[in-house]
Amino acid sequence: MSIVVRDVREHELDSVLALNNAAGPAILPLDAARLRHFFETAEYFRVAERDGTLAGFLIGVGSRAEHDSSNFHWFRERYPDFFYIDRIVVASRRRGGGVGRAFYADAQSYAELRYPQMACEVFLEGANDPALLFHGSFGFREVGQHVMAEVDVRAAMLMKQLCSYAWVQETYGEALPKVPWVTPPRTAAASAALAQRPTGTCP
Question: Which residues form the N-acetyltransferase domain (predicted)?
């Protein structure tokens, strides 16, 4: 009955793609090539298992990533350093069972060691009050709105301050302890992106 969050495996990409494209209008569709690009470059690409089956996934990138999302660029034009949640998908049969909160707790544990803020967006078309409530209860606040020209959808742009980041930087700098839960970036490209980041403190 427990939820296990771990790095995605290559053989699971077809299942992840099916989950994404069955998620409905709140999630933009993907094709296999774009998902493969995420697999090869995304700093954070993890899945959740519940009862031995795939329950969802979350993809995140740092602010220095080569990422073509207009929402990502909206944040990058305004904020120098952040961890961006590109998408989170939970299988319909698992919604409301804690998978989303498990993902956000895991993503924050990763991000707060490396970034002062987390960013994401919620589409405002349709009945998305539950998504806004979920993010608000997790500490995200709206910092603006953006219309995605490519799909003509308005999104609420959300940020969360990660104030543990300042303490981590003051205490460890970039030399984080070598312990299992301090997961390193998944790829060499992600490591290079982290190396190019400016240092800073949480406002």
Answer: 3-164
